[in-house]
Specification:
The protein is about 30% helix and about 20% strand. By secondary structure, the protein is an alpha/beta fold. It has a five-stranded parallel β-sheet with strand order 7-1-8-9-12.
């Protein structure tokens, strides 16, 4: 049987944290606690716990692309390396399934976890510039799975953001290595051209969706992965994504947008990550599966930055526009200045 490795999506596998004399941010937040599942634990969203969760789940990025917890004294780790336990369910109570339905079907056909059914969970909050050690571990996992299965090349599948991350990994590997260890790659709703939702998180007020959304927007804006998921200037060249009365912003103008919005940290992260949005040929067989015909937020209108806004729907899968899912450079422009 062909062994398979799963690469999860954004928010698609568990993350654990540990608190050791963590900075005090609110009197009711723990400063010391042994390893526990922070993503996803529903108790984190109880009213008082929300603020503690936010401080423990934010990241900060160094100029060198190193991602660490924003709150001193907070450490994180990704549990269950190599096992689908990391991404079948997000919570320890097994009530929030992600890959479980697919894994269950594969098990019925004889697949076995940690043998020919593997997973490569990762720190999905970080941008791809923080994936160096992960890419090395992923290389080792392919080689280990290949050997465990009698030197059979390994298939891979990924969902959403996992797809461009996996293509970046393939772009770092020699063709001879890929010919030996990688059989094929099946991309499910691959966000190759990014998603407009990233723009809404980073550039638009979240208050229209209520307090919980405002909290999540504040947390997510600290992640390099959200910046990386901005619509790609290589696919969306002169398409307008944000309309204001004084300035319209296209994908190549996102740096100016964040400068105008006084978001210096986002500008620096974006400058580092934009070159990674252009992929080289991966050198393996690829199957791309994606949806379309679903109203999808494509652009936004507002009188001025920081004010109320309106989303404009276009064709996509509900999260990404069709052009982003096909990953076609030089796609037909939908909107022009």
């Amino acid at each position: 049987m062909r062994p398979l490795i799963i690469i999860p999506s954004l928010i698609g596998n568990r993350i654990e944290v540990k608190l050791e004399n963590a900075d005090t941010v609110h009197w009711y937040c723990y400063n010391n606690e042994d390893w526990y599942t922070i993503w996803f634990d529903k108790y984190e969203f109880f009213p008082l716990e929300q603020n503690c969760f936010g401080e423990n789940f934010k990241l900060k990025r160094s100029v060198e692309g190193v991602y660490t917890a924003a709150r001193n004294g907070v450490s994180s780790r990704i549990p269950h390396w190599g096992s689908v336990e990391s991404c079948d369910f997000l919570d320890t109570g097994n009530t929030l399934p992600v890959w479980n339905e697919i894994s269950t079907i594969l098990r019925k056909y004889g697949y076995v976890d940690r043998f020919n059914l593997r997973a490569a969970p990762y720190e999905w909050r970080a941008g791809p510039d923080g994936m160096t050690s992960y890419f090395q571990n992923l290389k080792d996992l392919f080689e280990e799975t290949y050997t465990l299965n009698g030197n059979i090349s390994v298939a891979a599948t990924a969902l959403s953001m996992g797809s461009p991350y996996f293509i970046l990994f393939l772009n770092t590997m020699q063709q001879s290595w890929k010919d030996k260890y990688v059989h094929s790659f099946t991309s499910l709703s691959g966000a190759f051209g990014g998603s407009s939702f990233a723009l809404s998180v980073l550039a638009l007020p979240q208050t229209q969706y209520g307090p919980a959304s405002n909290l999540l927007g504040d947390i997510a804006s600290s992640w390099g992965s959200i910046v990386y998921l901005l619509p790609s200037p290589y696919i969306f060249n002169d398409n307008i994504f944000l309309y204001t009365k004084s300035q319209n912003y296209t994908a190549p103008q996102f740096q100016k947008l964040f400068q105008d919005a006084n978001k210096t940290a986002t500008v620096e992260t974006l400058r580092a990550l934009v070159p990674m949005q252009k992929f080289g040929a991966p050198g393996i067989k690829i199957n791309c599966v994606y949806g379309y015909g679903v109203p999808t937020e494509g652009s936004y209108s507002m009188d001025a930055l920081g004010g109320p806004w309106k989303a404009n729907n276009e064709d996509g899968d509900g999260t990404c526009l069709t052009e982003a899912l096909t990953g076609s450079y030089g796609a037909t422009n939908r909107r022009r200045q």
